[in-house]
Amino acid sequence: MAEIFIQRDHTLGMEKARAVAAQWQKEAEADWGMDCTYVANETNEKGEVQDRLNFERAGASGFLCVTATQLSMKLELGFLMASFKDKIEEKISSNLDKLLA
Hints:
Helix content is 39%, strand content 41%. By secondary structure, the protein is α+β, with helices and mostly antiparallel strands.
């Protein structure tokens, strides 16, 4: 199993960051067939309010954590998808960078 971890700091604030996560969710569901679940207003280990977008499909699962200052994603790839790890990481990083721009 391969893991991808992507973290992006931002200055959008929580509402705009939520909009970025919602757009990413739409694209993940439409383009990659991800099943997504959005959980709002959790508290993370730093005591910050965060939202968490959980996603999964055959061969991949993970989450996107959204705070007022940061987006962080962890993605676990199954055996068959692990060989595409670099390409998947590049695509997701590029996608998040476009959404944050």
